[in-house]
Specification:
This protein has 145 residues and is an alpha+beta fold. Helices cover 24% and strands 35% of the residues. It has four helices and seven strands. It has a seven-stranded antiparallel beta sheet, with helices on one face. A hairpin with a 3-residue loop joins strand 4 and strand 5 (74-81). It is globular.
């Protein structure tokens, strides 16, 4: 099956520390994430922090764990969906944000996938490709939202 890995980036006119706060603080994350999870606490994410996505009935359908955290440079969530018919390889399905300081601001890079493991993977790929997550992070970090 063809891999479904989404790669996007945006340049943000804000210091890396400000962007880092927006991408790791639950209050801010609730404002930019396409599908908002439940967080264990309101404190910024740490290595091992769990996240849960629940359906309308309150049942968990997707879990995430922070498996890589290099402040203020990299955040990686490893994902596991209950609908997947096979266990993904370690690090096989991740949501990774990398911050790269630039002369003017910060470049934020997103790599999300491989969604091919999910029978709805193409739909999720398209939804996240069209999502405004990076634009919202930019607006929050630049103080426009």
């Amino acid at each position: 099956m063809e891999k479904l890995v989404l790669e996007k980036s945006i340049v943000i006119d804000a210091p890396t520390a400000t962007v880092w706060s927006v991408v790791t603080t639950p209050d801010a994350m609730k404002r930019w994430m396409l599908v908002v999870p439940e967080f264990e606490s309101d404190r910024p994410l740490t290595l091992g922090s769990p996240l849960q996505w629940k359906d309308e009935q309150g049942e968990t359908y997707l879990t995430g764990t922070v498996v890589e955290l290099e402040p203020p440079r990299k955040l990686v969530l490893e994902l596991q969906d209950i609908s997947w018919t096979r266990e993904p390889a370690r690090g096989g399905v991740t949501y990774a944000l990398t911050l790269v300081p630039r002369e003017k601001g910060t470049e934020l890079q997103l790599v999300f996938g491989d969604l091919a493991i999910d029978r709805e993977g193409k739909r999720w790929f398209d939804a996240f490709n069209e999502a405004r997550e990076l634009d919202l992070i930019k607006s929050l970090a630049e103080g426009r939202l």
